[in-house]
């Protein structure tokens, strides 16, 4: 990682990173253990899919219910052009799998999470080049507040706003470029472009959930119910 050595007595960036990873693992692990303990014998672990409006198949076991809540979480959005970069593409999920941080990162997406991740990496000594189609970071809509945020955080990371950002790679380095022609080379790319619900394999159509032409559930005005199906989808 880049950056000067910390003052005597201060923690090194890599030590802070390892502490953050350990804390994440502890919190996630404890939550899972408490959930499993509370559910007891009522918890079935397996791959579930709908076989009827209120019937699930969980690895061959049928489960009947009056209603079903789909809370399968979400996964990071990774555009197709980034997939060619292979393991050099990070997401907000896989970032914490790194034992060591790269010296530089190109980041696509400067929403609230993107800005948070970008600043955290920068403060751990990583050179960050971030871009977003929106003219203001962090989902800010007020122009004055947005410009204040840019002025505050621009010294910590490079921000290319209001234009598309691309990434191409050779055997050694990745080149990220902005729509206005600016470009920089980085070691890895972080996709921070939002998340989509994990609905693959659930066979929502078998539950009677109305789907649009892209296979996405069409929800009621309250954003939870799907047509007349006894299914609630807070994850979407």
Please give a quick description of this structure.
The protein has 236 residues and is an alpha/beta fold. The protein is 23% helix and 25% strand. It has two domains: 13-73 and 197-232, FAD/NAD(P)-binding domain; 76-195, FAD/NAD(P)-binding domain (3-Layer(bba) Sandwich).
Strand order of the largest sheet: 6-13-7-8-9
Label the structural class: alpha/beta
Count the DSSP helices: 4
Mean pLDDT: 90
Question: How many discrete domains?
Answer: 2
Name the CATH architecture of the largest domain: 3-Layer(bba) Sandwich
Silhouette: globular
Per CATH, what is the topology of the largest domain? Answer: FAD/NAD(P)-binding domain
* Low-confidence segments: none
Quickly name the level 1 CATH class of the largest domain. Answer: Alpha Beta
Number of strands: 15
**Percentage of residues in DSSP E strands:** 25-35%
SSE run: HEEEEEHEEHEHEEEEEEE
Terminal CA distance reads 37 Å
**The CATH superfamily title of the largest domain:** FAD/NAD(P)-binding domain
Helix content: 10-25%
Biggest pleated-sheet summary: 5 strands, parallel
């Amino acid at each position: 990682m880049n950056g000067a050595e910390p003052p005597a007595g201060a923690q090194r960036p890599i030590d802070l990173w390892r502490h953050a990873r350990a804390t994440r693992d502890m919190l996630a692990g404890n939550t899972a253990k408490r959930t499993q303990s509370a559910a007891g014998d009522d918890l079935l672990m397996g791959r579930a899919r709908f076989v009827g409006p209120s019937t699930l198949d969980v690895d061959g076991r049928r489960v009947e219910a009056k209603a079903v809540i789909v809370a399968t979480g979400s996964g990071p959005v990774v555009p197709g052009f980034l997939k060619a970069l292979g393991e050099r593409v990070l997401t907000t999920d896989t970032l914490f799998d790194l034992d060591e941080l790269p010296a530089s990162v190109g980041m696509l997406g400067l929403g609230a999470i993107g800005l948070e991740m970008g600043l955290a990496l920068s403060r751990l000594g990583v050179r960050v080049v971030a871009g977003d189609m929106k003219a203001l970071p962090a989902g800010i809509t007020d122009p004055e507040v947005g410009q204040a945020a840019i002025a505050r955080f621009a010294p910590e990371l490079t921000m290319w706003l209001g234009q598309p950002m691309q990434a191409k790679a050779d055997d050694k380095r990745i080149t990220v470029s902005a729509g206005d022609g600016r470009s920089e080379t980085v070691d890895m790319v972080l996709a921070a472009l939002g998340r989509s619900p994990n609905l693959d394999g659930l066979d929502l159509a078998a539950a009677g959930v109305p789907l649009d032409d892209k296979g996405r559930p069409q929800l009621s005005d309250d954003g939870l119910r799907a047509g007349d199906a006894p299914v609630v989808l807070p994850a979407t």
